[in-house]
Amino acid sequence: MLTMAEIESIREMYFRKGMSKSEIAEHLGKDRKTIRKYLQQEDWSVVLQKPMKKGSKLDPYKATIDSWLKADLKMRKKQRHTAKRVIDRLVELHGEDGFDCSYRTVAGYVAEVKSKIYGERGCYLPLEHRVGEAQVDFGKAEFCRSPHLFPD
């Protein structure tokens, strides 16, 4: 691919100076077909092709994983599937040779599905400390400054 400066010089030599395509090709050391291509080109927007999505090794197992994670909604939090447990169960079902996905692939998919099932947990309350007050876990205590101990 040529730079815009080279393309502009090609177009200038052809349209303003009246040089032939062969003369321009000889002058610039480019192929005549390249010169013709850039002279005929009217749309300079680059059309990018979308990369084709490949299937994942995990695709045959996704329905099974989804069913396990949806069934976990009825289970206590500590009893739910982790990515490690999902891998262990898939290896039990399909054997060492039948299941060959990496931990990272399974963990990414499990995290994605869990975020859809359980939703976002981004709710929190801001913690504010006003002057002279503090928050503790074990209870409430009042402190006051004694003018005898700390004179101004």
What's the short story on this structure?
This protein is an all-alpha fold. It is built from six helices and no strands. Among the domains are: 4-40, no CATH class; 59-118.
Q: How are the SSEs placed, and which strands pair?
A:
Blueprint: H1 4-15, H2 21-28, H3 32-40, H4 62-71, H5 83-98, H6 103-118
Helix pairs in contact: 2-3, 4-6, 5-6
Average pLDDT taken over every residue: 85
**Structural class by SSE content:** mainly alpha
Q: What's the alpha carbon Rg, rounded to whole Å?
A: 34 Å
Number of helices: 6
Distance between the terminal alpha carbons, to the nearest Å? 78 Å
What order do the helices and strands follow?
HHHHHH
Strand content: under 5%
Uncertain runs are none
Give the overall shape: flat
Report on this model:
- The chain is mainly alpha-helical.
- 47% of the residues lie in helices and 0% in strands.
- It has six helices and no strands.
- The protein has helices at 4-15, 21-28, 32-40, 62-71, 83-98, 103-118.
- It starts with a helix and ends in a 34-residue tail after the last helix.
- 7% of the residues are buried.
